[in-house]
Design brief:
By secondary structure, the protein is of the alpha/beta class. It has one domain: 3-Layer(aba) Sandwich (Rossmann fold). 36% of the residues lie in helices and 14% in strands. The protein is built from eleven helices and eight strands. It has helices spanning 23-35, 47-51, 72-85, 100-104, 107-115, 162-167, 182-194, 210-213, 220-229, 262-265, 276-299; strands at 39-43, 64-66, 92-98, 121-126, 173-178, 201-206, 236-239, 242-245. Strands 2-1-3-4-6-5-7-8 form an eight-stranded mixed beta sheet, with helices on both faces. Strand 1, helix 2 and strand 2 form a beta-alpha-beta unit. Helix 3 packs parallel to helix 5.
Length: 300
């Protein structure tokens, strides 16, 4: 399928409250194209709870349940149970939460749902900070990034690896994606939907944020692609326990094919305070991640 083969139906309505160049809104647009109308979204406190608009109006063309920040996994579990009780088995339940609501405050409910084998899709759109509440650092904020809670030296810890944390739950499907590669994202969401009845499926989408990352809104797709091309964000899927690289990440096992991390970092104001030593640390972290990927490939 080419990009022109994506469904024409739109479930993100015009006039919604997303920021110009919002990577999360772009990602959700393609996620809903893959899922279709028979979908229920469970959304905690996050940017998307603003994007959807104020009751009784909505910028999203499928049913939405708003939930407390920490409760996405629990609320989605309740929706799954209610639909089962009503005999409705053709509806896909999706938890859609940011990185703060996934990697930090919501990880307990998500882990519990996965352990119970709750039959839903959980999607984290990762804009790498608590953007809706003022750009505070989260567990998914990368090393060196300036936030309102790391305003001078930047964060001094690397990102929490949520996809691999979820893979450790032995769930049937884990995948990474980014809003800059919509075809790859679409196909992964379709695959997760195909595994209905097999338990929890997890997708983690890197979603650039113009105000939080401090870049011109026209650069969202470019930055999204550079994250992959530099090796900072690795596209892969773990389908029923089988790991494989996907999209442009396939060729990046060869380090000579990866662009220098500076090409990604220099476009974002949140990294303006990086020293040469910081950049070397980020490059070291990227290279170490790829060594781990190589080991995983060897065991397949």
């Amino acid at each position: 399928m080419t990009i022109l083969g994506l469904p024409e139906e739109e479930y993100i309505m015009s006039g919604n409250a997303s920021c110009p160049g919002c990577g999360a809104a772009l990602a959700l647009r393609h996620v809903l194209k893959a899922l279709g109308k028979r979908t229920v979204l469970v959304i905690p406190a996050c940017c998307t709870s603003v994007i959807q608009g104020l009751y009784p109006r909505s910028g999203i063309g499928v049913p939405v349940l708003n939930m407390a920040f920490e409760a996405t996994g629990a609320a989605a579990s309740g929706v799954v149970a209610a639909l089962k009780a009503k005999g409705k088995d053709d509806i896909t339940v999706v938890g859609w939460a940011g990185d703060g609501g996934t990697a930090d405050i919501g990880i307990q409910a998500l882990s519990g749902a996965a352990e119970r084998k709750t039959d839903f899709i959980y999607i984290c759109y990762d804009n790498e900070a608590y953007m809706n509440t003022g750009i505070q650092r989260s567990g998914a904020t990368p090393y060196g990034a300036l936030t309102t809670t790391t305003p001078v030296l930047g964060k001094k810890e690397h990102k929490k690896d949520m996809p691999m944390i979820m893979a450790a739950h032995k769930i049937p499907y884990v995948a990474t994606a980014t809003s800059g590669y919509p075809k790859d994202l679409y196909e992964k969401v379709k695959r997760a939907k195909e595994l209905k009845g097999e338990g929890t499926k997890y997708l983690h989408i890197l979603s650039p944020c113009p105000p939080g990352w401090r870049y011109d809104s026209k650069l969202t797709v470019k930055i999204s692609k550079l994250a992959v091309e530099t090796g900072l964000w690795i596209l892969y899927e773990i389908d029923r326990g089988k790991f494989k690289l996907s999209g442009p990440s396939k060729r990046l096992l060869d380090p000579s094919k990866r662009k220098p991390v500076e090409e990604y970092l220099k476009l974002q104001g949140r990294f303006r305070g990086l020293s040469d030593e910081d950049i070397r640390e980020i490059q070291r972290w990227v290279d170490e991640n790829w060594k781990n990927i190589e080991k995983m490939m060897e065991t397949e």
